[in-house]
Amino acid sequence: MLEIKIRKFVRIILAFLSTCCLVLMLWVLVDCFTAKSTATEKVITYKVNNNIDYEVTLKDNQFYTSEEANEKNRYVTSLMDTLQIYFDYELSGSKFFSGEAGYSVNLELVSNYDGEVVWQYKEEVLPRMSEYSTDVLEVKVKDSVIIDISNLYSRAKEFNELTGYDVKLRVDVRVDSSLSVEGYKNKVNDEQILSLSIPLTKKVVSVTTTNDKSVNRSVIDHYEVDEKFNGYLFVVSGLVTLSLIPLTILSYISLFNLINIDDYYRKLAILKRRYGKYIKSVDKKPDFKNKEVIDVLTCGELARLCMIKDELKINLYEDDDKKESLFYVIDEKDVYLYTLGLNYEHIDMSDRSKKISIKNNKKSKKS
User: Fold this and answer.
1) Distance in angstroms (rounded) separating the CA atoms of residues 139 and 131
2) Any idea of the CA torsion for 94, 100, 101, 105, to the nearest 10 degrees?
3) What is the CB neighbour count within 10 angstroms for residue 70?
């Protein structure tokens, strides 16, 4: 019995493992046909270099030359005549791209008081200009504009004398680009503002410029890639699945047979223990020729016969190969038989009643 329990445990493990492997292989097979995609990203890196510079021209005077003033960046406001602004912009990328780059120049005179704008004058110095490039690694913009500082100074001075508020000149050079790369969804959209400012209502001023001379940036393009059908994986998993199917079936058949065998021996042991005093083991398989065999449903019925007639015994023949045991009682020409086995199905009550009634009729005829 212990050996059977150990064998049953081992076969349960084998059945479980073969089932898990089979399910896994079936999942791999289905997965081979399932359309799927992997999220990934492509990156475009680019670098921007830009610069803004200027040169002031003074009115004719006996104090300073334009060269001296520009060298020191110190100017008498009333002597300033024109302001020439130079600007350049360069964008270089890691991929070939196509698109448009444009620029424009605007100025404004603005006066603030307690953080609020009290007066403002705007002027478009240079309307937006653009240039389209195709399959290039870099885009360049380079130009210059001349601004009449003398006229702007007159406007600022008039407002200052009227209100006492300071006025500042601000010039903005706006450069923008919109570039696309083949195979990428997202574009390279870049914008730079190069600024220059002068406090016009001061008697002596310096010119201040503001810009990021070098900028490194990147554009991340998120997309999904469809995975190709893996034929090699399909063939291998298919072969493994075909080999696992019969192995799994056999493991369950073996397990169920062992469970039945274990149940057979368990029931046999119970019957031997319960009716042991009436049972007599025999080594030879009985021959029931010339006898009428009456099947009974329980071994207890045979025991009751032995109680009625003390000379009767329950003979027990065990066939270990077939896993079948015959419990029978011989009473003259009648054999009362109870069979315990793996492939034996007991007759139902209606059949049994029919046989018993036939037996009773025979006894009646004899009497």
Assistant:
1) 9
2) -160
3) 17
Residues 340-349: tens digit of each pLDDT = 886 554 433 3
Residues 6+ apart with CB under 8 A from 263: none
CA distance 73 to 67: 10
**CA gap 126, 147 in Å, rounded:** 10
pLDDT tens profile 183-197: 777 788 888 899 999
CB within 8 Å of 53: residues ≥ 6 apart: 85, 86, 87, 209
Residue 136's nearest CA partner among 192, 91, 191 is 91
Q: Determine the Cα–Cα distance for residues 103 and 174; give it in Å rounded to an integer.
A: 5
> Using one digit for the tens of pLDDT, what is the confidence trace for 215-271?
888 877 666 655 666 666 767 777 877 777 887 777 766 666 656 666 777 888 888
Instruction: Give the DSSP per-residue string, 18-73.
Output: HHHHHHHHHHHHHHHHS--EEEEEEEEEEEEEEEEEEEEEEPS-SS--HHHHHHHT
CB count, 10 Å around CB of 286?
Answer: 15
Could you tell me how far CA 303 lies from the centroid of its own chain?
Answer: 69
Q: Where are the alpha helices (DSSP H) in the chain?
A: 2-33, 66-72, 149-163, 231-274, 299-308, 349-366
Q: What is the pTM of this model?
A: 0.52
Q: Of the candidates 106, 84, 101, 124, which has an alpha carbon nearest to the alpha carbon of residue 50?
A: 101
Q: In the 8-state DSSP scheme, what is residue 362? A: H
